[in-house]
Task: inverse folding
């Protein structure tokens, strides 16, 4: 009933169902006052009804007025949506200096607030979000050439300029025309191709190369009981899922006004990436009522509902403790079964068709793939320990790849609970980007620590229901040939895992609050620091990737910010030159920071470089048009890949009041063979943590 009610509220947004009654009453009042606001339309409807001859004149008048009122009401809703969409297409506000808001922007903010209503639901703004615009080819080529200028010598740059101009003159007009046509009928001209060609068609392992991770609270562990922590967090996830399915979460809004697209959140739960020979696909189901748990090589199915309600945290703790206490041995081939999801995709797809398409194997695999999500009860202890030098490094590596067989890497996410009470998440990347998981993870950790809590002994609060059905151990009949495929996938994954060199650095001398006080963008500050570090480490500059979001547009995902610029390289060279005065260094820093911030804003507002070129390249393949320029651009390696994890999307925890309740963010792995690519992930908090 609540789901239906919220569906109605979202469907008629920005109006409300009660506004229909107001319109009907207003129209009826004008009729009784002998005024016809319909310009004769009500009489036309009444004459159509009079043909039947079964209704009185008064009934015909009332029904005609109601039908006209409903049509007028629906027309007003559409008009309001188009007005709101037009307002949300205004992006000049993002280019204004911090603290300096123009009159136009103030007026725009007032209009958006007025049309947004008081309590919009999660998906209320979806139909009002503008489409991602297709940039002009001239602008994209100009920005591309500008981005590679500091990386090429004069001869190389001149050659690239010739190739780019040839493309702009010859192939680009036709490709751009078809891409614009696609943008008219597709909800987002990038996102469907991005999901298919960047993620689902990739045949290499997704472990490390694609999946990413999120960490637990850095300094706080609310209980050291593994089953209890898992019980609270799984219950909090079920609460989040219920609010998500009902659309009850508040939409994320920049400045508290500009809505972000919520489309990616739809596939957070009940979702699995299914392997295929040529391409994978994402399977998303409706409300699933069970969870699959992995512990010491065994898989268990746990029901999440009892008597029509979610299991309470104490009941979940009981179920998980039963699994921890189970001493049965894994069945042949079961221990490393999940390594199939960590290795190459084609062997996994073939093994799935050959060995898991019938009998107990099919039933057990179906239980995993249709579960709400996957839970791994690890037999190791991890987490940050200031007394252990590599604790953060080992914690991150465990979340990123584990033992290569103790996470189901195809699930939308795997919740990992360590034996010391620490947690983490490993997430599959095709269905969504990191901020989506971050939104859920913030809600879960805040609910766990501040709303659910624990007893003095560290157990979940609430009564223990011993009448719950026992967790069901999944059954397998895995032949030797399949076990060989599993072992081969494991060896492929292990080589990748052993090749990852991770180092985590906690920097707590100041946070982004102090950087902002210096009138500098925290993101630009970090990016310039990374450029300086890269130059000092390698002695050269390189093509640098930073992810920016495009969620101000419908179904927007990400865009690339090319952080290595002529301005940033000038700043780095000045820093390395002892003869350069401090004032000059500061001036170059300001110019480089302003340049980076402008590029980030362009990327956010649909004027980036790489997604446009990517789509032109895909279009060239569809049309069988050979483009040396696009081929070269798409083959350029990103030798320095950077990202950032947003914190406090929900503001459920006051970091000033509870400074120790801060997360360590998350990260991802390099996709190129070392030492060609280095990945940096930084977490920014709202305030300084001292």
Result:
């Amino acid at each position: 009933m609540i789901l239906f009610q919220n569906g109605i509220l979202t469907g008629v947004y920005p109006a409300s169902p009660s506004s229909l009654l107001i319109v009907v009453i207003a129209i009826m009042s004008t009729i009784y006052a002998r005024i016809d606001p319909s310009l004769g339309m009500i009489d036309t409807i009444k004459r159509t009804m009079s043909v039947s001859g079964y209704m009185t004149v008064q009934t015909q008048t009332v029904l005609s007025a109601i039908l006209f009122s409903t049509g007028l009401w629906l027309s007003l809703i559409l008009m309001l949506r188009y007005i709101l969409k037009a307002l949300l297409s205004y992006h000049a506000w993002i280019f204004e200096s911090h603290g300096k808001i123009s009159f136009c922007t103030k007026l725009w903010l007032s209009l958006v607030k007025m049309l947004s209503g008081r309590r919009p639901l999660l998906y209320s703004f979806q139909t009002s979000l503008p489409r991602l615009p297709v940039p002009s080819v001239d602008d994209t080529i100009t920005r591309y050439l500008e981005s590679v200028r500091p990386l090429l010598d004069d001869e190389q740059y001149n050659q690239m300029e010739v190739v780019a101009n040839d493309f702009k003159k010859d192939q680009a007009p036709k490709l751009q025309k078809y891409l614009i046509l696609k943008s008219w009928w597709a909800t987002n001209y990038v996102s469907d191709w991005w999901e298919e060609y960047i993620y689902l068609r990739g045949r290499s392992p997704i472990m490390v190369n694609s999946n990413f991770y999120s960490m637990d609270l850095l300094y706080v562990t609310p209980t050291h009981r593994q089953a209890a922590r898992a019980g609270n967090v799984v219950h909090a996830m079920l609460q989040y899922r219920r609010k998500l399915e009902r659309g009850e979460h508040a939409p994320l809004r920049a400045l508290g006004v500009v809505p972000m697209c919520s489309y990616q959140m739809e596939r957070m739960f009940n979702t699995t990436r299914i392997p295929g020979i040529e391409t994978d696909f994402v399977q998303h189901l409706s409300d699933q009522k069970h969870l699959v748990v992995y512990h010491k090589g065994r898989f268990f199915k746990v029901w999440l509902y009892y008597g029509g309600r979610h299991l309470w945290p104490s009941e979940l703790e009981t179920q998980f403790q039963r699994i921890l206490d189970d001493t049965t041995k894994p069945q042949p081939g079961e221990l490393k079964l999940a390594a199939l999801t960590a290795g190459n995709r084609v062997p996994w797809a073939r093994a799935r068709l050959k060995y898991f398409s019938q009998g107990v194997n099919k039933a057990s695999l179906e239980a995993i793939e249709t579960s709400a999500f996957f839970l791994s009860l690890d037999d190791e202890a991890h987490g940050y320990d200031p007394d252990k030098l590599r604790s953060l490094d080992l914690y991150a590596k465990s979340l990123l790849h584990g033992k290569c067989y103790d996470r189901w890497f195809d699930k939308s996410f795997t919740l990992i609970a360590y034996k010391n009470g620490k947690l983490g998440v490993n997430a599959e990347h095709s269905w969504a980007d990191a901020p989506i998981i971050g939104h859920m993870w913030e809600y879960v950790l805040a609910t766990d620590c501040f709303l659910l809590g624990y007893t003095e002994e560290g157990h979940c609060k609430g009564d223990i229901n011993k009448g719950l059905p026992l967790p069901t151990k999944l059954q397998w009949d895995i032949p030797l040939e399949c076990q060989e495929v599993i072992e081969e996938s494991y060896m492929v994954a292990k080589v990748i895992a052993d090749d990852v060199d991770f180092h985590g650095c906690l920097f707590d001398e100041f946070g982004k609050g102090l950087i902002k006080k210096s009138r500098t963008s925290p993101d630009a500050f970090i990016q310039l620091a990374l450029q300086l570090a890269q130059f000092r480490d390698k002695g050269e500059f390189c093509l640098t990737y930073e992810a920016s979001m495009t969620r101000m547009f419908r179904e927007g995902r990400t865009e690339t910010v090319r952080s290595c610029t002529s301005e940033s390289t000038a700043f780095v060279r000045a820093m390395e030159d002892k003869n350069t005065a401090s004032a000059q260094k500061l001036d170059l820093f300001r110019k480089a920071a302003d340049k980076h911030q402008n590029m980030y804003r362009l990327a956010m507002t649909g004027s980036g470089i790489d997604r446009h070129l990517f789509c032109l390249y895909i279009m060239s393949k569809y049309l069988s048009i050979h483009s040396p320029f696009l081929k070269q651009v798409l083959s350029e390696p990103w030798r320095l890949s950077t990202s950032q994890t947003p914190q406090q999307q929900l503001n459920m925890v006051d970091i000033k009041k509870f400074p120790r309740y801060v997360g360590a963010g998350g990260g991802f792995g390099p996709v190129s063979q070392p030492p060609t690519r280095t990945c940096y992930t930084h977490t920014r908090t709202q305030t300084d943590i001292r």
Q: What stands out?
A: The chain has a mean pLDDT of 91.
